[in-house]
Amino acid sequence: MVPTNYYVILSAILFGLGVFAFIFKRNIITIFMSIELMLNAVNLAFVAFSQPLGKVDGQVFVLFVIVVAAAEAAVGLGIIILIARNRQTLNVERVDLLKL
Amino acid sequence: MLHGGHLLSVLIFFPAVGALALLLLRGDDHKFIRIIALIVSLAEFLFSLLMIRAVPAGAAGYHLEEYAKWINQPPINYHLGVDGISLFLVILTTFLTPISILASWKSIAHRVKEFFVMLLMLEVGVVGVFLSLDLFLFFLFWEVMLIPMALLIGIWGHDRRVYAAVKFILYTMAGSIFMLIGIIWLYNATGTFDLPTIQTLLHTPASQGGLELAPRTETLLFLAFFLAFAIKVPLFPLHTWLPDAHVEAPTAGSVMLAGVLLKMGTYGMIRFCLPLFPEASRRAAGWVAALAIIGIIYGALVAMVQPNLKKLVAYSSVSHLGFVVLGIFAFHNISMQGAVYQMLAHGISTGALFLLVGMLYDRRHTFEISEYGGLATPMPKLAAFFLFVALSSLGLPMLNGFVGEYLVLLGTYQRHWGWASWAALGVIFSACYLLWSYQRVFFGEITREKNRALPDASAREKWILATMAVVTLWMGIGSTFITKRMAAAAQDVIDQVEPQRPYEAAAPSEFKRNVVKLNATPTQTEQDPARAAANIVARERLGIR
Amino acid sequence: MLPRVIDAHRVLPELVWCGFGVLAMLMQPFVRSRHFFTFLALIGALAGTAASVTSAMHAGPGFDGLVQSDSFSFFFRLLVGTVAFLVVLVAEPYLERERLPFAEFYALLLFATAGMGVLASAQELLTAFIGLEMSSISSYILAGYRRDSLKSSESAMKYFLLGSFATAFFLYGIALVYGSSGTTKLTGMGSEELFHSTYFELGLAMILIGLGFKVAAAPFQVWTPDVYEGAPTPVTALFSAGPKAAAFALLLRIFATVPAATHFWFWAFWVLAALTMFAGNLGALVQTNVKRLLAYSSIAHAGYIMVAFAAVTFMARSGAAEAAPAYAAVLFYLLSYALVKLGAFTIVSQLGGAGEKNLSLDDYAGLSQRQPWVAAALSVYLLSLLGLPVTAGFFGKFYIFKAAVNSHLLWLAVLMAINSVIGAYYYLRVIVVMYMRESSAEAAAAPPVGFPLTVNFVLAFTVAGTLYFGLFPNQVLNFILQPTLLGH
Amino acid sequence: MPKYPMLEFLWIVPLLPLLGSAVNGLFGAKWPNKIVNWVAIGSTGLSFLGALEAVREFFESGQVLFHEEFFTWIAAGNFRAGFDLQMDQLTVVMVLVVTGVGWLIHIYATGYMAHEGGYYRFFSYLNLFMFFMLILVLAANYVLLFVGWEGVGLSSYLLIGFYFLKKSASDAGKKAFIVNRIGDFGFMLGMFLLFKAFGTLDFAQLFAKADRWPADAMGHLGTFTIACLLLFMGACGKSAQLPLYVWLPDAMEGPTPVSALIHAATMVTAGVYVVARSHILFAHAPTAMLVVAIVGGTTAFFAATIGLVQTDIKKVLAYSTVSQLGYMFLACGVGAFSAGIFHLMTHAFFKALLFLAAGSVIHAMGGEQDMLRMGGLSKKIRWTYVTMLTATLAIAGFPPFAGFFSKDSILLSTFENEYGGRNVGYALYGFGLATALLTAFYMFRLIFLTFHGRPRFDEHKVHVHESPNNMLAPLMVLALLSIVGGWLAAPAMLGTGPDYFSKFLQPVFGGVEAAGAEAEARSLEVTLAIVAVLTALLGAAVAYWLYLKRPEKTDALAKSLKPAYSTLLNKYYVDELYAAVVVKPLLWISTNVLWKGADIAGIDGAVNGIAEGATAIGDGVRHAQSGNTRSYAVWVVVGALVVIGVIFFWPFGGKAVIGMVH
Amino acid sequence: MGREMTAPLVVFFVLAALAVIGAVSLILQKHPIHSALSLIVVMVALAGLYLLLGAEFVAAVQIIVYGGAIMVLFVFVIMLLNAGVEEHTNLSKMAGAPGLLLVVALAGFVAATIAKSAESVHAAPQTGELASTLEISNMIFKDFVYPFELTSFLILVAVLGATVLAQREKS
After folding, report:
1. Does the model's ipTM exceed the 0.90 cut?
2. What is this structure's pTM?
3. Could you tell me the residue ranges of all domains in chain E?
4. Residues 20 to 49 of A: which have CB under 8 A from any D CB?
5. What whole-number distance in Å separates Cα of residue D201 and Cα of residue C467?
6. What is the pLDDT of residues E33-84, one digit of tens each?
7. Residue B237: is the preceding peptide bond cis (ω within 30°)?
8. Does B284 map to a domain?
């Protein structure tokens, strides 16, 4: 059997990659995708934990997270469209009017 | 729980009511505003005089106490009281306020209503500070008072007023925030903010349910309180806000600042530092005295070379307040009374000096000494008043400054002759800077044409100055009126710092007029024959009467 | 195990707010009158606030421990409800001035409020997460509500990206906590074992990261100034008062319920508090934009509140009763702070003028001459932020100091003291500008900015509250200090 | 009706001049001179009469010491300073001198100042001076004495700076006050020490206690010695002794009556009075006595040498005053207090006379003070000449003028003085005698330069005229006093009786001066007197030779002794020395080190530096806010690391909080 | 690792490798579309892992909602906005090398901590039974009915937000 730790380590790696992606990508959409990656990592952790605990609530949480992710996606893409329309760019580094 | 009616509450809040009334009344008629403010402040002064009756000579402890519950978690109470020390400080405040109002009669022309509102609010804060017996309440007034003062400086001041106002408030806050921590610490240790209660607890041995502070804790607490007060005084080297604040403040602001606000610092030392942390006070005394002495000499020397008249007076305050601090930390009942007296005297003298400087400014719009010269010719009356005030400030006997200074030095000398000797140098330097500046401003030929036609003191100015002069003279001669009322309170403070000093513990006797000295002497047996003969003659003479 | 009526009672305020939000959404195509929506929103906010009374009367755990209706949640529901109510009042003239749709704004506002209510009452991490998302997502949208404004949209983007980023941490923390304790209910995390669980420790760390972001603790605070500046000012007012309070509420509940949290978080709070105070105050020192300055000040105040949290940890050792003063410090501070910030941003919102152009400190020069009452009100707020007596802010700070000193956190208290002085400088700067500088020529020539009745009501309310709590904090404190505050 | 009304209401004596001062000061500006005169002269005259009556009552009551407490002025703890007046024989002398001479000078001043502006002001100040001087001499404790002490200093300041338009005048006034303050510094410390030691500052109690204390050993800095030295420091300031004498010559900037009254007859002798008043203390401090004697003797000689070459008529008299004051201290220093007071009294007469006469000369010359521009005035202003000559003879010590007797008794006491078994008297006597020589020389130089020889001024421009009667009358009275004032001591000199003056003061200073001195002692006295007279004659002769007989030699002599001459002319460069060593460095340090250095750059710099530092950090914090979302994310990661780092790796006790001991 | 290589383990490693590769590819791809596709790979791999964990309902939802709906939305928006290859602006220093170090430190620490502490997750008593969908629905509609209801409002908010934000100006 696969030890739960393996899943959790994988989720940590994916989460880390998500963080990494968030920082290194410049395209807002990609950055948003890296958030989705992080959420996926979390989901993996939930499911992984729920299995040895013998409870399904971990899986339920995943469903909630997916719903929330969907909601976030709707709003986030809305915001991205807004930015693209206002700034004519999707490069996050060009959106830095507010600073200092 | 009320003992003496609500006089103290009235004293604190009456000016606030006046200010509120001013705020709501029409704001365009400046004369009307001024008169209302003056009436309010005069009435306040009269109220404050009523306190004198309630503070009998020779009675220690608080009088006219008021007590009401205010906040129950933590238990903060509205506790007021007056003793011999605070009594006269309050009267000084209420006296200087109408004077300040009169002094601002003409010179404040814009935002008149706000000005007088601020002045009255300032009075509220200051009187509150002096009358509070609850640490929290004290702190509250202590802080509240900052705002009107800062606004007085910042709105009606001179060129660098904003800098000065901000500096003033930041300096003060920097100190007081630590005091707040100290107050809270005390509360945590004692469970109360009530000053007399805390005092009792701290002076009761732990075995009897009192609180004994560890030396380190006590020192830290002492420092927390002391820093706030030292900044306010201001003690060297925390004084640099003062010259700026004074120079930039309008006349009334300077008068209140020098006359009353600085005293809050020394009052705090007397009321809190010494009684609450006697051990730490004793340990710190040497350091504090050193700073005070440095302040005395340093303030005087720096004052001497100021090209700016107002700054000169400001630095002279540093010097004078050094005497007060020295007197307090000499832990001698004579010097303590001297310190309190010096506080009052400085309030009057320096207040008057600022009034005069302000009057000069009203005429010439400058504080530069070099702009003046020879003013005695066009304005002999002002010159005479100025000299009078300068003399009182430099401690000429029979004027108010002497009594305090002399008592401080005398008392200090009894404990630490070295301190007193160094401090007495200030007596020389004060003569230097005051007379030198006086010479440069008033003596000699007129060097600037503008000065030739300056008008002499107006009737209003004459009344203000004459009042100040009368008080100066009265305080110089009739000092016992004040000292006998505060002696017990001062002794009380000393007893709390150093309870084991019996030779001064004897309650000061009240001196009656015409008691032939030889009868009053406790050491009759020590007379030698020749003197004894003189005695007999003296007694016989009394018998003849 | 179907939900009972009493469960509905215990979450009634949120349901009411959501309900009114839905109502506003549904009415939007049919009603054109903006006053109608304002009215609706006001009633909604009030109704929800009133409903919190019912739910407080039916105190107890709801939905089998997902939420807890107790005095604590009652306090926060009242707070966020009142904030929402006041924000509606502030927003009305703003939306009209900026020509923005009403219904959606109010709906989002009510949803956000509901989210905060959930956060304040949640006793289970997933519920809390949903609440957090509700308030956050609404907030993202509200931040970008002025679509045509570059700043507003940028603000929304930054808030959204970083907020989601932080949420992921929070969520990961929940996962780890869940993994180690087997539950997401806070009440289930009392076991001694958890003190030694590394997963749990890491999970709590992650949760702290997520919530630290929400409350703008340094070094997570970076988003705050940008978002606050870019968002429409009434929304900024909401941000500074509402979500932050709600996030603190959740933190406080975790503190109170999970012993291991107090155990693990103490030094983190110590350090974060110190960093946050300095970051906020030092950053604010050099600001010239009032809105941004207030944003930095928000950061600083979060730092002060976190000082109290550090104290909570310390006191909680001796039981909930002992920690009560520290809780009280937080709650009272949040209350006073919410009032003040709301008032301040209201004024900023109103003075900003069309398109929020007049936000610079220079635009406030001579305000005391032009609009003395407004200047006076703003001064009251600033002095309260500064912590001067007779204002609520003073007691707030006082209680925090007290809590810190009680817990022997003297150094933290000293750092806070230093920060108070730094803070005094920039608050005073605003007052100085208002009172001691003369208006610019065009400002003096321009007619005074109008303050409609609604805004004046908000100002009067907040000023009165600030002064009232500054003089008589008794009632609030007595309420906060009751032993059953947290329901257990 | 009380038995002794004047004593009972002794305060009236000082109060009258104060009232006069106040009335003139407040209302005099609008009054004609005549009314001002009436007020001023009336108040002092009444005061003089009151003093006389008080003295009469004092003797009638037969008291050793009259003491009255009028009211308590300062009281704190066990300290009390009352407005207490006392009267004993010493006071009697002083009071009569002060009121008497003062009154005469007031009268003189009405003439002298008749044409000056600020007439009322002058008399107001002068009356104020009388008030304080009376307080000084009547005071029954050191504190009240100090009131008078400072008060006369103030009056002196005001009067020196009377011509306030002149910078030199106001400078001189300021200088006088400040130098006096330096002395007062010592005086105050002396008082503090006395209070510490004896618990009182009342003369009677203090001296009674002190009398029973053991005296300090020789060379031992005990309480008495230190206290006495400190008091003497005050006396040095007030009485212009080395090294604090510098103000007195400058004080001549004041109007001449002021110089006569304050800077010759009364105020400057206050130091001598204080030493005499404290003689019990000094008697317990032999070292202090020696110091007094040495300082007195040195000053006497030192000032006389400067007097030799001065050309300003008032300056000569000023240095002469310093010198004579030195004489008095010399007397006190050797224990001859009554001799000192005796000289104080006679000096008051003849020095006041000298000044008034000089004033008359100046008046006659239309304000000219330089003796080199005078000459041959004896015929034109005959009365002035006669009176001045009388005074000169008196000061030079020719019998039977007053100065002869007082100076003689000082020299005699000096000669006999011992200190610690060694006779140091010879040295002091040598100083005294040398001073006498110099005194005779410069005084006759003054007379010869002023009144004899050819006029050295333009007689067409300067209309020399005799002074009015109200100026001459006081001159006459004082001339008379300068002659007869010393006769009280004559019987002792002639061997026909005791020294009545000493006998008079005996209740104060105790059993001194054996009345019927032994023959040996008297022969010594006579010998010394002859020596002194011969010395004075020598001085006068040299002056005659140098200034009348061979005036051309003067310049030659001056040239040949150039360095010495210019040193003297420049008063040993003491003023310059003070300026260079004390004043300038002090100002420089105050300005550059304390004010601009410590205050502005140091403290304020530090404060502002902190503020700027905070702003700079704030700017740094601000720059973390780059506006770039990615960098914000990095900050979030940093924060995550901080949180995790603190939770997992906190070095200070880590998570052990829960277990932390209270 | 002294563990025997069983079949599930092999599957795990394959899927894990796939997920990691997908994630790395997401980072390395320059074009958003490619990144999106990489993300889909990750999601699919995770769905496989869910199956391996016995959570087939979640796996299904993962594929349908995540891989299907959400990612389609992403791709749609990318197309709509015509997003091109990522620009290379180098404006933020903070996001450069120090950022890399920090992230590595964070991820490394988290992974290491988890790896180190096998303690809390009890040695998996693998039942092999799949959690029934019924169980899940029971949970959602009973235990978590309140958050579930709240999510509906959340969706509402999202819809509202999307319309508010993305609608064209009515000029």
Report:
1. no
2. 0.87
3. 1-84, 133-171
4. 22-24, 26, 31
5. 58
6. 888 889 999 999 999 988 888 888 888 888 888 888 888 888 888 888 877 7
7. yes
8. no
